[in-house]
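From the shared-data thread, chain only:
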Amino acid sequence: MVNIFVVCVGKLKEKYWTEAVAEYSRRLGSYCRLEIVELKESRLPDRAGAAEEEAVKEAMLANNFEILEIHHMKDWVSITAKPKK
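Structure, as tokens:
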């Protein structure tokens, strides 16, 4: 079975989004193991992106993932990782 690990910065505030995530997770349940981790959003204006990136890296390493590459985009960061063996 495939494992999907999603790390999100910030929490969903709208009820319709939380319901959509719950429904999508339920539908995926028979095909994969889905784990969603929501991290606290940083409130630091100048270094918020760097602080959030570090929090995501720590969450991935804490869940036994090896970080392969990091792509910095204009407004977001994509981190590719694989489970450690």
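The helical segments are 15-28, 48-62.
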